Amino acid sequence: MIEFVARRAFISAITLLLISLIVFTGVRMIPGDPARVLAGTDADTAGLEEIREKYGLNAPLPLQYARWLGLAVRGDLGESIRTRTSVARTVALKLPITLELTCLALLVALSIAIPAGVVAAVRRNTVWDVLASGVSLCGVSIPNFWLGIMLILLVSVRFGWLPASGFVPIAEDPVGNLKRMLMPALVLGTGLAAVLMRQTRNAMIEVLSADYVRTARAKGLAQMAVVVRHALRNGLIPVVTILGLQMGALMGGAVVTEQIFVLPGFGRLIVEAVFTRDYPVVQGVVLITASSYVLINLLVDLSYTVLNPRIRVRGTADGG
Amino acid sequence: MAGSAASPAYPLPRAAEASAPGSGLLHRAWRVGRRRPAALIGAAVVALFVLMAVGAPWIATSDPVHTDWAKIRKAPSWAHPFGTDDLGRDGFSRVVWGTRISMQAGVFSILLAMAIGVPVGLVAGYYRGALDQVIMRLTDAWLAFPFLILAIGLVTILGPSLTNATLAIGLGATPTYIRLTRGLVLSTKEEDYVQGARALGAGDLRVMARHILPNVASAILVQATVAIPTAVIAEAVLSFLGLGVQPPAPSWGTMLNAAQQFLEQAPWMAYWPGLAIFLLALSFNLAGDGLRDVLDPRDY
After folding, report:
1. Residue whose C-alpha is closest to residue B49's, from B276, B296, B203, B237
2. Residue A52 CB contacts under 8 Å (≥ 6 apart), including other chains
3. CA A189 → CA A78, A184, A270, B172, distances in Å?
4. Are residues B266 and B258 in contact, defined by beta-carbon separation less than 8 angstroms?
5. What pLDDT, on a 0 to 100 scale, did the predictor assign at position B3?
6. DSSP labels for chain A?
């Protein structure tokens, strides 16, 4: 097991290094003087010189990269051109909003996907299965930003049940916060629910035909106990993998969801940064998002050692 | 073996399967279509969208960028079945022309991803070793960027336009094809017919192009079919955020962006472009599921 953990951590470290290299190269590909790119068009000569000094822009590229990486590892991602505040601080302020949104979306997705996937598998080839598969296909195909607009139209404009936009911190007004987060979480969670539902269904179909499930049935256990206690626990293992891989889609989805519902999170920050050509912020957000994705997937892989005892014994992940 | 001629232990191929491969494929397509009518409907709707994209100049009832101040935000009517937008432009014509842009972005971005991903995956899977390791680590790093975040990053560098959005979506989808192709090549290159070709003296290029590629093509094609709707949605999202097609060009994403500002006064502006994206994505997904059954007999 230690070998598996060490190997996985080593691969993740290499991936993180390559991500930083891609981001560094990306910013250098923006036409113009890198100092001007990082300091903004209205920076004076002193400001430009400060940036050149900080990032060693007169040094060869490998040295520039090493210096930039050293600063990034210490949490110094530069300064926002627009607000002149540190990028790390700006991101830290916005991150809780996006985290709350993604956690709620995850909750929505899991509470739809797992029961529906299990029902579709247990009642395979019945009307429930067809219905669940149909809903799942629609969920994958529906653009979440359009779903958001339609929900605003129906729930806020037509019935006036929930506010269409805005954000209230949860510490200030928990009810108001939830009222404003409900629709965005539903919009962001739908696509994920559709993917997870398919995965749960397929995994459960496979598990339900396994010998140990047949044995559990033969013992006279009730259907509910067989499904929940024996099948679901094993059926959820591949679902966890997909969940990890889908975190990228969730983060990307958060960008557009925050835009529609005017939530001042991480996603809205990057879009605003693109329009104001605030490259340090774009660079910081992209770097943090990709790094988080790698770390989340590392955690998912490591969670196998808890979920799947075979890995603990063999010391290697299935198929990997 | 003597008895096998009189009473074969394996089922003899039926007439349709024994004939030319094309007709076998058609026969299987027909069987899949009969078993899964939804896939047939999906394929028919995709064909309709293709027709709409190609025939936009003849199908659209008016100029999609022509503004008419006397017809601002008019509800659907016989003259304007999808209503008009905030600049008095005909909604139906804009949706029809938007098909062309969405199809263009969806198909070309995936073609680009395949054009880069398939050869790179082929080389990585065929040669293995250090080259494979370098390619795969880079692919892993590339895959770590969430699709939309990567596209936003690339559009920031390249500037917002349809071409750059297509390029960004294509580059974002490329690692999937590298991984898929590599995985398929790894299993295919151990097959007897590949070993046989090598034993007969075929060079690496010939083995890859003539023996491996044709056998992995169907799985790649299926992946492409299900990736197109994602690319279509990605283009719409980028345009919605103002990072793709720029106004006044009729894109479903930019139309939804405009519609969001007039939800109370003109909700119809939001119905049609979104419905079009949904229908196109759903049809591609349905057709893709059917295509997988046609091309992959193991799943059939």
Report:
1. B276
2. A35, A58
3. 33, 8, 21, 22
4. no
5. 37
6. -HHHHHHHHHHHHHHHHHHHHHHHHHHHTSSS-HHHHHH-TT--HHHHHHHHHHHTTTS-HHHHHHHHHHHHHTT---B-TTT-SBHHHHHHHHHHHHHHHHHHHHHHHHHHHHHHHHHHHHTTTSHHHHHHHHHHHHHHHS-HHHHHHHHIIIIIIIS--S-SS----TTT-HHHHHHHHHHHHHHHHHHHHHHHHHHHHHHHHHHHTSHHHHHHHHTT--HHHIIIIIIHHHHHHHHHHHHHHHHHHHHHHHHHHHHHTT--SHHHHHHHHHHTT-HHHHHHHHHHHHHHHHHHHHHHHHHHHHH-HHHHHHSS-TT-
By CA distance, what is A287's nearest residue in B? B145
Both structure tokens of A164? 């269409």
Burial A207-225 (b: 16+ CB within 10 A, else e): bbeeeebeebeeeeeeeee
Shortest alpha-carbon distance between residue A125 and chain B (Å) = 13
Q: Which amino acid, one-letter code, is at A272? A: E
The one-digit pLDDT tens for each residue of chain B (300 residues) are 333 333 334 343 444 444 455 567 778 778 777 777 888 999 999 999 999 999 999 999 889 988 888 888 999 999 999 999 999 999 999 999 999 999 999 999 999 999 999 999 999 999 988 999 999 989 988 888 888 888 888 888 888 899 999 999 999 999 999 999 999 998 888 888 888 888 888 888 898 888 899 888 888 988 888 899 999 999 999 999 988 999 889 999 999 999 999 988 999 999 999 999 999 999 999 998 888 878 765 543
**What's the ipTM?**
0.84
**A219, two tokens:** 């013992």
Helices (H), chain B: 15-18, 21-35, 37-54, 56-59, 91-127, 129-143, 147-158, 162-188, 192-199, 204-206, 213-240, 252-260, 268-295
Nearest CB to B153 within list A142, A249, A286: A286
Residues 6+ apart with CB under 8 A from A229: A216, A221
Phi, psi of A86, deg, nearest 5: -65, 140
Q: In angstroms, rounded to a whole number, what is the distance separating the alpha carbons of residues A301 and A17?
A: 19
What is the reported pLDDT for A184? 96
B157:A22 CB<8 A: no
Q: Which residues of chain A have pLDDT under 70?
A: 307-320
A chain contacts of residue B273, beta-carbon cutoff 8 Å: 146
Closest chain A residue to B238, measured at CA:
A256
CA distance to A281, B65, B66, B87, per residue, from B69 (Å): 40, 13, 10, 6
> Residues A93, A96, A102, A108: is their CA dihedral positive or negative?
negative
Are the C-beta atoms of residues A289 and B156 closer than 8 Å to each other?
A: no
Classify A308 as helix, strand or coil. coil
Residues 6+ apart with CB under 8 A from B30: none
N-to-C CA span, chain B: 30
Report pLDDT for B298.
Answer: 52
**Looking at beta carbons, which residues of chain A come within 8 Å of B278?**
138, 141-143, 146
**Adjacent-strand bridge partners of A214:** none
